Amino acid sequence: MARLKRPTGLGLYVSLTVALIMTAETTLFVSYSARARQAIDSRLDTLDLYAANRVDVLSAASYAPDALARSWSSGGAAMFARINRTGSFLLVERLDDGVRAFRFDGDSYEALSEPERYESYEPIRRGLRGESGHWSGPSFDGRQVSGAYRAVPGRRAAVFASIEDAEVFSHYMRGAVPSALITLAVVTLAGLSYLALSFLLRRRDTLGDRMVLAAELFDTVREGIAVTDADNRIVSVNAAFSDITGWSAEEAIGKNPRILKSDRHDPEYYKGMWASLRESGRWSDDIWNRKRDGTVYRERLSITRIRDARGRTGGYVAVFSVSPDETGKDERCVPNRDPLTGLPNRELLKDRLSTAIANAEREASGIGLLYIDLSSFKYVNTSYGYASGDSLLQAMGERLSASMRKGDTLSRLAADDFVALLPSLERPEDAVASAGHLLETVRRPFELNGEAIYPDASVGVAVFPDDGADADELLASANAALAHAKESGPGSIRSYTPAYQERAARRLSLDSRLRKAVERESFAVYYQARVDSAARTVESAEALVRWIDDDGSVIPPSEFIPLAENNGLIVPIGEWVLARALADLRGWLERDPALRVSVNLSARQFRLPDIGDRVDRALSAAGVPYDRLELELTESVAMNDVSRSVAVMSDLDRRGLSFSLDDFGTGYSSLYYLNRLPIRWLKIDQSFVRDIRQPDASPSNAIVNTIIDMARSLGLGTIAEGCETEEQYGFLSRRGCSQIQGYLFSRPAPAPEFEKLIGRGL
Assuming Cys at both sites, which of 382, 477, 552, 604 could form a disulfide with 462, CB separation 3.0 to 4.6 Å? Predict the structure, then answer.
């Protein structure tokens, strides 16, 4: 066997040189990869949320092809095309009789033939199930692509964006390694390059689509983007942010976004913004902001909450755009005007109100102040999109202004709050009459996307001099009256009394205490048994929340649930109750595997676009099967948006979860829609049960009979709540009511006490 020769000096030099080159390129590759991954990780959420923002725009377009083309060509599709000519957006929508699909490339769109083939594509199938994520693999025509898919909130549709892997890796090759080093090592490092490229191909979803679709998109879009952490400190901005605001990345990072505050919006405006972010995770509006040089400008701003792996708030992403003719036109901006409607804002209203008070004091006349709150505005935003909500506000401003006297002032103070100033009022009762007139004006139908919308409102009334001596006092009094009107329901008008102010102060105190209670989880879940009417054994339990105050006293839900519904805290409270009830149920199932727990679902919770995913996560975390959980909805919640209710409820029903319709008989259920909803139980309202009399002479007897018979014909079970006497129980059991709930069997009790009832006859 031939012996290997020792390396010569030249050979050793060459070997060391090659080794050093290999080490250098490897170091550069690893360094680049690390930086790329770091950039991807920091900006991936931004891309996702930017896409979500674009999907909101898409959803608001109501799927009209021309509107879709305009929406996407003005933003996402055009930007995608600039990055990669092969990039495209695909929309697939599930219809009652099949699917339809559109492709968007740059400024054009096309309706695709054979849309069913796209429905079968795995990313689209996932999106239609309500999922969102990233994808790498073969496309429809066999090309290797990377992309992202996202469900359209509130719609049976999904969007898929893709880019060819060839473009992804060419981007890497253009900038990853210095050309001189490649030249020196091209022969020696052929193997290493092959291995590196193979590794990169295997990791294409982290070093490919995410880098091109996140890092480069982040830096090249024309919309300004700012990312904050959980403490609302700016951690990242893109180039467009700096171009629009004048703040460089180095100057902005670490600061609070309030550096852009223009002082043209009152504190209530920002309170409404944060309330929307807490409730739904999103907020959008036209807003006045200020550049670094002091120039005030108007922008379209959308803010989206980022959640971490545990579902906690990890920060926020703000995306804003400014029309070219809006930038730098501060001198042409009309001061003290609402940017959306052009109506006077709070500052101008207070100025005119102060002038009116001075005139009224001289002339010994009165002033009326009407605080108007639109009760349907949030529903329009949720169901039709922010653009439709803006249209409603603009039209409502024009409609109300046209119905008022010459010399009156209509202003917009917050998202859905208007204030009417009525100077030279002869009699206090004239203010109430004007409020009634404006309320009728609000209630006229409003056409939106070809559908008739019937708005409603609540009105608070204050008059000078009885209810306040200056502008601030009058506004506070009118607002207090409005709060009382809103408690009475839409269409209510309330005039101010001193008791309202005291009540408002108590409400404010309760609101503050409730927020602290949510942070501390100062709640308990009580359970009330639902009893099988024939066997008189516990079949299920209803979970009921109680607030445990700092002094140990129990605050009933009637005192804090309406407040929580209003301020958005009902969402975290409801999620806590669901998690707690499922945790208790998991332990009880060992004793009684057939036991179920029912949990009430609030209107705000049910309107969340990802409510199905939230319920799924709660069940998975607790390890409880779907068929052991029942969700209770009131008639008004289920019937508010029937199409969406059917879609959401059907999805959960297919997984095994059941629904009951609470307080049945007190709402406005249509039998047609009732038949469409996947309801398994009707809960007979306690107002009918408590009026049951023997013999069967009471009208409530007939109503209960009818409900039980109707439910039976529809294949539904019935649950009677509020049963307190053996007489009531006897009537209900003879009529075939499935389950009975009430003080006759058990009061709501903490988990340890309820547990004693499991398996016992009552």
Answer: 477
- The kind and range of the H/E element at 169 are helix 165-175
pLDDT at 23: 45
The tokens describing 661, both together, are: 């319709």
Hey, is 370 helix, strand or coil? strand
CATH superfamily of 346-496: Reverse transcriptase/Diguanylate cyclase domain (3.30.70.270)
Are residues 297 and 283 in contact, defined by beta-carbon separation less than 8 angstroms? no
pLDDT in tens, 361-392: 888 889 999 999 988 776 676 667 777 778 88
d(CA 315, CA 312): 9
C-beta separation of 172 from 22 below 8 A: no
Which whole number is the average pLDDT over 429-433? 90
The per-residue pLDDT for range 278-327, each reduced to its tens digit, is 877 788 787 888 888 778 788 888 888 887 656 677 888 888 887 544 44
d(CA 368, CA 360): 11
The C-alpha atoms of residue 613 and residue 615 are separated, in whole angstroms, by: 5
Provide CB contacts within 8 A for 431, sequence distance 6+: 366, 368, 369, 370, 422, 425, 461, 463, 495
Q: What distance in Å separates the CA atoms of residue 602 and residue 742, rounded to the nearest whole number?
A: 22
Q: Strand ranges (DSSP E) for 415-497?
A: 417-425, 446-448, 451-453, 457-464, 493-495
Q: Do residues 675 and 704 touch, judged by C-beta distance below 8 A?
A: no
In the chain, what are the domain boundaries? 16-218, 222-332, 346-496, 528-755
- Give pLDDT tens digits for 481-511: 898 888 788 888 998 887 766 766 777 788 8
Strand pairing report for 88-95 and 108-111: unpaired
